[in-house]
Amino acid sequence: MARINPPFKKSPWIFHLNTGGCNACDIEILDALTPYHDVERFGMKLVGTPRHADVILLTGPITRESKIKVIRTLLAVPRPFAVLAIGSCAVGGGIWFDSYATIGGLPNLYEEMRHKYNFEPPPTIYIPGCPPRPEAIIFGAAQALGILKKKVKREVYKED
Amino acid sequence: MFGAILAPIVVLLISAVVSAIMRIRDELAHIPSSVLSAVASILMILSATYVFIHGKQYTSILGIKLCMDGLSAFYALIVGVVGLGASVYSIGYMKRFVGEYSLSWFGICYSLFLLSMYMVPLTTDFISFLVFWELMTLFSALLVAYESRRPEAYRAALKYFAMMMVGAGFIIAAFAIIYNELHSLEYAHITLPPLLKHVVFAFLAVGFGFKAGLAPLHSWLPDAHPEAPSNVSALLSGVMIKMAFYGLMRFLFLLEIDFWWGITLTLWGAFSAIVGTYLSIAQDDSKKLLAYSSVAQVGYIAIALGTAIALLVSPYSRILGSIAFIAALVHIFSHAVSKGSLFLVAGSILYRTGTRDLNTIGGLAKYMPLTFAVSLIAGLSLSGVPPLSGFVSKWMIYATTLGSRISLIALAAALAMFASILTAAAIAKLITSAFLIERSPSYGKVSESPHSMTLGMLALSAMCIVIGIYPISAILPASLSTSVTLAISSEIMLESLLIHPAVVIIKSAGAFAQFSSLAIVLVVGLGALIISMLYKSGLRRSVDEWLSGSIVEPTPRYSAVNYFSVFKDIYGAVYRVRRALIKGISEPLLVLYKKLSTAYEFEQRYSTLVLTITTILLALIIVLTIIGVI
Amino acid sequence: MLSILYVILTILGSIIGFTVAPLVDGIERKIRAKIQNRIGPPLIQTWLDIAKLLRKESLIPRTAKALFIIAPAIALAMNIAALPLLYYGAPNVLGFYGDIILILYLVVGSSLILSLGAAASGNPYATIGFSRKISLLIACELVVALSIATAILKTGSLSLTEVILRTGIAPSMIIAGIALLIVTYIESLRLPFELTEAKPEIMGGIFVEYSGRLLAFAELSHILHRFVMTLLSLDILIAPLLKLVFGVSIMGVLMSFIILMLISILVLIVYGAIESLCGRTRIDRALIFTARLMILPIISLILASIGV
Asked: Does the beta-carbon distance from C211 to A46 stay under 8 Å?
């Protein structure tokens, strides 16, 4: 998953991508960017185009309307890069996980892009919460940069 | 050896006759005239070279005494170089008009136009100067009106002709005053009373200013240049408008020059440079843009000439003044080749896409790579980027004007530097909107222009590089003609002038002791190469362009009309002045002329007949006036 | 002996200019952070950014022309070439008759070639940025040209070193220097005038399609451009005074070198502080501001022509 030492560890430039969310997560992202939380001390900088981005902050359940734009944006980022899926919707569709209007979160998009565009998913950090607190977002970003280690391990339930 | 001078004349006359005979196979008529004109152009270059090596040559034809001295040879060289490019280009370009307009008629006018341009600097007396001057105007006007079924072309030609007549009036008046004192029609130095001297200067400046297209008198130029066929535009803008400076250089130095003449010319030139470039960045028509840019570049020449006059008055600044004079000549040369090739580029675009509107074309770089390369070279040269010809001439102009320590000239120099950026912006607009920016083409796929056209363009743009890398190739002829005009012996010129710091930087290209133009480029180029090596080792990937993730149709993209539009809002005064000028100067003349000759509604042959007769009548009137003064 | 010192100082100055210019950018960001009461990025942040960009891949849009790829390298080379031509407190041995014009050519040319490269990307946002950048460049260049003309008129020399050595304290030069300093602020595209990138508006403008190494070259050349322009205006404004105070002895040259470097860093920091207090203006307001600024160099030119 998250690479321990990506080249952008000391200067992650972030690109903010709303894929049809309710804006709660976006407000929390903006909160995280305020001087109070001061993400610039990690060298983070908000950029205007995915060409400059190292980390994509993705919010929202990815509506059908926005799907093609999200795909184009993800294809427009130079490698290596990381994705932060912020909020319950981005993680798994949230309360719209089975809605016809959305595709139900980032994992489903990756699945589709892997088949259609031969796209290898980048390291992705999932930050649940509705919305997640700014601290959680910064914590996730720190994980993506390899500054902090994950506190939970991936566990798969097996029926014995 | 008089044959050297006469040979081009003979060839061009043969060309005109052959063109007239080729009326029977009109669709092929442009080939002999173009080939013969190209041959004549080569002969002009050769005869100019002969004169540079062996000194002044005299001959006479039909009782008219001709003389090719340094200055005439320099002009013959320019006519030859641009004429060669344009003639080769004509072979392909004139196919555009097959079946529409008479190619044989074009051949006649074209050959005679070249001939008259060659003859003007060769004359040695006022009358024959005027005759050839008017012939040059006539044939250029006929060529502007070549697409005579298009009312715009006709209107442009009439406007041009009307304004030239007024200009010629001023010149004749000046000549009459000179003759009244001199009692001889041959060129000779003369001392006039102070007041009369200034009047003569004013008349000459205004009269030749009309031809040069200096700013308030320029309004014929942006109409006539775009409407003429592009090969003719290259000659009009490249060579003909500079004939005005031949006149000024020849006749002003017959009088005793005055300091304030220089200042006047310099400030006038600066005004022209600013107005021309400001108007040029606002154009959406490729050839109009170039035409306005010519107004600006003529301003540069006027700045250099004015500085030369102002400095030559004082014996202490004579050397810097001579360098300014050389700078004017070198700029004439460099602008001739760069603007010539740019007009040919505009012609190629017109040939392939059928439009001059920069809003509708775009992305041509991948279809017409050679044309793109030529436009880049010529455009950068025009903006004064090293190591191209424009850098050489502009550098000399800046060095002399800024180094003159005369505050009004320094002001003009600052304005000229500013105009240089504006020129670069105009050229950037032309290149980006025609070649770089993607736009859904309404013209389908296009291919590279035909070989002969490409060859003509490449030949001219190659001259930009040659002069840029070996500046001495332009500076040497220019300094030889300067030494003749200013009566400085060529030994002194070569020994003391060319080692002046204002010249030495560009003279010693390749010598690293001095920071030459080539050295600058080598340093920058080497640096860029090293940096590019760094880039080469990195990862690269080809992707789609990023348009906010959406699929935008290319039609609503940024078009030429939006470029620098903010200038039109803020510095609108300049643009309003232009409209006022057009209303004030050229419109009344046009109306008057239309009343004089109702040619406007006629078909081509009748109207050309009327034009011809009018001109001959006017020429007769000129002659009679002068005889009357006698 | 002295001339060796001159050479060393010019080389040292160029190297310091090249390494310090991105560092100064870091200091600016630190200052901005302090104004907003936060910690801020480390001082070497800009170098870290560039190092990162050098390690990322470069994406080339399919619509881009070759100019898109070579433009950043040429722009960077031009700015680096301008560095050793400046005056670093000691008479510049590389200087020659006309080097002022060459410096102007190089700095203006680098801006021009960078925006041409952007337009060659085929992206409409880049074209908007290109148009704005050229408009701003045109407006600024009149002020720059008039100020430089003042300096040349005052001394009659086209060599930067000679201009500095020949002038004492002249009001015309000071006014021209101030005009240059202000126009440097505008031309270096700092915040009220950061119109060509305008991230929320035209998404990075001229840089919209640049990524990876190409972006690193473009950013570096942009930062160097700021440094060159600032040092050039300080050369006109402060250097004559320094020369008058310290002379051209070994100690004097060293002192003026250090002071000139410190002042140029200080000026850049002040610029950064001003930038943190501003929002973005509109292009037409920016041009009107620049047009009003023209009064300064015109006054200085008039003063210079009456010999003050």
From this structure: no
